[in-house]
Amino acid sequence: MSVFRVGIADDEPLARERIRSLLAGRREFEIVVECSDGAEAALAMQNHALDVLFLDVQMPDLDGFQAIEAAGDVEMPVIVFVTAFHDYAIRAFEVRALDYLLKPFDRARFEETLTRVSERLSMRGAQTFSPEIGKLLSDLASHAPAYQSRFPVKSRGEIYFVRAEDIDWIDAEGNYVALHAGGRTHLVRETIKSVESRLDPSKFVRVHRSAIINVDRLKKLQPYFHGEYVVTLHDGTTLTSSRTYSERLRALVG
Known about the structure:
It is a single chain. This protein has eight helices and 15 strands. Helix 2 runs parallel beside helix 3 (64-71). It is an alpha/beta fold. The model is unreliable at 125-129 and 140-144 (pLDDT under 50). It is elongated and about 70 Å long.
């Protein structure tokens, strides 16, 4: 019999105890790590070769989605979100979560999840989703996206955070983006398109294929050739916008 390595990540001890008790007696599931915050969950995904992770959404330091992002380029376990809030179903679908357990859930609902987990692990790579996620997606079709307020940055085995409001500008550097904030540069393993999609468009503007600026840091715009602009920020950074991304800059200057 295959034994699947299990992680439980929830900041509430009683919630972890609940999952632990429901897994008791299921010899095919071995709990190898428990985490009380998102940073610990990210490190668990990096270091424990998990097969499945029961992941709370709202936790200190990093939420469940940020923990997945912070884990970086690792083989992801099967993710089962466990939360008291239904508002995150769309994002759960986007990160290909297998299931979405709404607290409080009973043993019968949990057993359904374990069945799906076993089926997924027996045919890794198959993209099947819980009917619960499908229903919630339908209910939340008009749900407005929440913009990310801070970004996790990994450095020397630790995770720290850069607030979105502190970012002056962002540029792409290979497989990374560089967050420039207060004279420091923080590298995050993401695409600039992914980062842009989580930033408030009323506060951040893409000025080039590889650059985004914080509008509050804009000091001066100078018309350049063919509808382009020379963009000067308060810290002295100078960028040149491309025609493709100049429309919003033109809107700023009327």
